[in-house]
Amino acid sequence: MKSIPASSLLSIMLAVTAGAAPLPPDHAERMTKGLEIFRNDVAPLLKEHCVKCHGGEKTKGDLDLVTREGLLKGGADGVAVVPFSAAESKVMKMLRHEEEPYMPEKKPRLPDAAITKFTAWIDAGAPYSEPLIEGRKPARDRSVVTAEDRQWWAFQPLAKVTIPTCTSPNPVTAFVLSRAAEKKLTLAAPAD
Hints:
mainly alpha, 37% helix
């Protein structure tokens, strides 16, 4: 049995904590099956028919399908996919040409076999194994402070420092002059 990637598990946890519907009791098995469907069938279909307009060259309707987070966020018209429920997912109605705008836009309806794969994938939780465009990452939650963020000077603990020796009585000026000297910079003359 294949394991579920951490990114998919994180997406599930975020969906639960964001007040989404409770997960089905067999969600782990369904997500595993969904990953297989995604890798073999849905990812190629999304890349061929959807990503050009929804996250590749453009992001029509504010719907970015490149990452699962973008898919779950939805677009300007609201939620596009309800994980574990293809019947409640707006994107399925568009793919079946039951609701406008029909998808793919200005192209014939996808074959029934492709629509069946999308249905099975969404009913299995709509997992992604990786972003559809290499190197693309999900949008970052700016409310979370990461380890990388903590390296920024404002997150560093306060420390006692020695004021550089300088002819100015102002300690800020002493630091500016010291750093300018290190960089071999000359300061502009004082304004009149």
